Structure to design on (334 residues):
């Protein structure tokens, strides 16, 4: 066992995603079986009672790695010295609510949390934003943490990558367990405009585009990946929770410790000049990344785009730019 426990904060800790995420982290699935942990859990005041019940259950598991659990409704306390932060809690979309109303409510939550992270988290913190609208929430949080680097923040599109890999396998009458699917990329926003891109993907080292039908890819696959969240809600009566928690662990694990050799992972990261002007600087956009451990990632360079992929990326980038403008309008500044 390593001597110093890692401090991990999860917000929205009494919610559905956290109910899966916390137990998997505490088992060691995030940082491995030799790293002890302190969980720091943030909730809003009315949910503190329910959160106490979650803590009881965490303690009842007698996890050997779990040194302590701290709960608070004060972000500065919950983020104190945290090295890994999962921003899961957010205001949910209510029936009939416009995306702009959802954005407005969440922008103020993520502004407050960005400031608190800036003030109290570890200077080496890594922050993963899960709460929707995840890309723009990431931008708002990172912009309100001026003492930290933008590369210390990222948003989650890994669930979309996992869904896409599973759909490709199912289409081929197989499973991700039997097929080695690599380099499948999610570009853009975690929203229906996202672009799941298989142009460079490989399946058992062969080109994915030689294996799947082009019409299925263009007419069904892209839409189905983007609408998978709605399909889960329709079937389950509740939004994706365990699969979102699993993807959050995949994302943070790979960022912290590195992904497999040759593997690309999709992360919503701060855009630099790599794909400008198609993907302009200053957004958080789903991109292919390589993680080689030490809490770092590198955007995969040198990808080219045909007319179809370019127009898909333009659409999702346009939406990200509109959300950024809206956030600017609400906050006066980011
Ligand atoms: P729940 O409604 O079950 O839980 C959210 C929790 O957040 C609640 O307990 C609530 O009290 C808490 N909360 C609200 N405001 C807070 C604040 N200011 N500080 C701390 N806690 C706060 O939602 P759940 O199913 O857990 O989903 C959480 C978020 O993940 C939602 O925004 C959801 O849309 C988003 N998702 C993102 C996904 C992604 O791929 N990026 C996929 C799954 C999910 O839809």
């Amino acid at each position: 066992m390593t001597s110093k426990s890692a401090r991990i904060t999860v917000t929205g800790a009494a919610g559905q995603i956290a109910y899966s995420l916390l137990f998997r982290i505490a088992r060691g699935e995030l940082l491995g079986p030799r790293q002890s942990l302190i969980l720091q859990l943030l909730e809003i005041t009315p949910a503190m009672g329910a959160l106490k019940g979650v803590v009881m259950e965490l303690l009842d598991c007698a996890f050997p790695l779990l040194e302590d659990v701290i709960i608070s409704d004060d972000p500065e306390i919950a983020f104190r010295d945290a090295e890994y932060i999962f921003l899961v809690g957010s205001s949910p979309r209510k029936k009939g609510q416009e995306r702009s109303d959802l954005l407005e409510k969440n922008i103020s939550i993520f502004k407050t949390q960005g400031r608190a992270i800036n003030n109290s988290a570890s200077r080496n913190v890594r922050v993963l934003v899960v709460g929707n609208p995840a890309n723009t929430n990431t931008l708002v949080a990172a912009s309100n943490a001026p003492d930290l680097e933008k590369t210390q923040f990222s948003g989650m599109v890994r669930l979309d990558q996992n869904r896409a890999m599973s759909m490709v396998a199912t289409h081929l009458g197989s499973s991700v367990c039997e097929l080695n699917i690599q380099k499948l990329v999610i570009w853009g926003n975690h929203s229906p405009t996202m672009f799941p891109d298989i142009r460079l993907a490989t399946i058992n080292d062969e080109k994915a585009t030689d294996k799947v039908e082009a019409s299925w890819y263009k007419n069904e696959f892209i839409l189905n990946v983007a609408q998978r969240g709605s399909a889960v809600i329709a079937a389950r009566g509740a939004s994706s929770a365990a699969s979102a928690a699993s993807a959050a662990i995949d994302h943070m694990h790979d960022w912290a410790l590195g992904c497999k050799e040759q593997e690309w992972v999709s992360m919503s990261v701060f855009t630099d000049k790599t794909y400008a002007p198609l993907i302009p600087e200053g957004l958080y956009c789903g991109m292919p990344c390589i993680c080689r451990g030490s809490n770092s990632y590198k955007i995969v360079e040198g990808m080219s785009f045909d007319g179809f992929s370019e127009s898909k990326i333009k659409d999702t980038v346009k939406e990200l730019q509109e959300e950024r403008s809206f956030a600017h309008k609400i906050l006066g500044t980011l």
Notes: Residues 13 and 121 are 18 Å apart (CA to CA). The chain is about 45% helix and 15% strand.
